[in-house]
Amino acid sequence: MGEWLVPLAFFGLLVLGMPVGISIGVAGMIGILDLGPRFMTMAPDRVFAGLDLFPFLAMPFFILAGEIMNRSGITAGLVKLADALVGWMRGGMAHSNMVASVMFAGITGSATADAAAFGNTLVPAMQKAGYSRPYACAVTAAGSIIGPTIPPSTLMIIYGSIMGVSIAGLFAAGILPGLLICAVCMAMIALTARSKGLPKGEGRPSFRIVLAALREGFLAALLPVFILGSILGGIATPTEAAAIAVAYALLVGGVVYRALTWRDLYEIGVRTTRITGVIFLIIASATILGWWMTFRQVPQAIAEAMLTISENPDVVIGLIVLLLLVIGLVMDINATLIILAPVLAPLTVKLGMDPVHAGIMIILALNVSLMTPPVGACLFVLASVTGERIEAITRELWPFILAEVAVLLLIAFWADLTLFVPRLLGL
User: Fold this and answer.
1) pLDDT one-digit tens code per residue, 393-414
2) What is the secondary structure of 355-378 as a DSSP string?
3) Number of domains, the chain
């Protein structure tokens, strides 16, 4: 009975509009009741055990650091630096949007933060320069998923914590895929620039202009260096590096730029608490659901079902990617990761995949879901910030989605590309 009632309860509550954390929690409790009354007394311990992981402390710190840097106006400096580097080309502001997304990714690690920040700043600027609003939103959405791909990344922290995979290794492995997404999207912009009539920049900037832009954005661009350098150099754990990032953000935003007020700090604290609370509610609820799935041997059943289709590793990897992309269309990516990672990771081990490679493949597939309708979070953020319709954004976004799916497949089937940086650093 429980095998059918649990998924029916979960999807039924989602259809009724219940928050995903509550939907998962209710479905999990139904599953525990199905196992027997004695398991109910153990459920609270399982919830706290699912949250009682030291690396999880890094999440609120990284979110807080990103909020501080965003609120203090650091985004403007990064955009000026990106514009000085690539803004002179045809479609220059679209190229600048992508490069700025790479820089911003190393600060926040959040796709929605990127979409909100650039939706408020770059999209209006692109409109003013002659770009259509749907296209400007599409470029912003396409670049926003670089945020959770290039470290620091909340998804990588969650995956590494629950699956026992090196977070430093995941951080290192995310660098090349993130840069590759940026390069592919910039190539797409360049290929369609003339046919779309994208405006051309004013010409190559002088060395003095580039130097001035570098000086303005230098302190912000230095934060990812501190974060990655301390983690990959073995100086600090991801949690300690996140705390360092908060201190650095407060120093730059509050002391150097003098752009933070006490009210700003209060609002930053409230927003950070809300975002962290939502993520932790999903993790806690998914712990119960995952416990039920383990008892019912759901991971083993899914693995066996996929292997009955084909024992060819490439075919199974393709099926995993397809499953993640389809589920990502209708479900929150944090919940999807927490529920499916314990299901799919054992299957990737059977296929002989490196745990870091498998983690990056799963995370990148879910990142792509952030910009696909009907529940792509970045689409909703851009629609609410700019007032543009999701359908109009999606029409301009499809070429970028296809390009990023191509990158995903390249990452999935070419392990050496993903593992090059971790191997180089001995991780």
Assistant:
1) 888 999 999 999 999 999 999 9
2) HHHHHHHHHHHHHHHTTSTTT-HH
3) 1
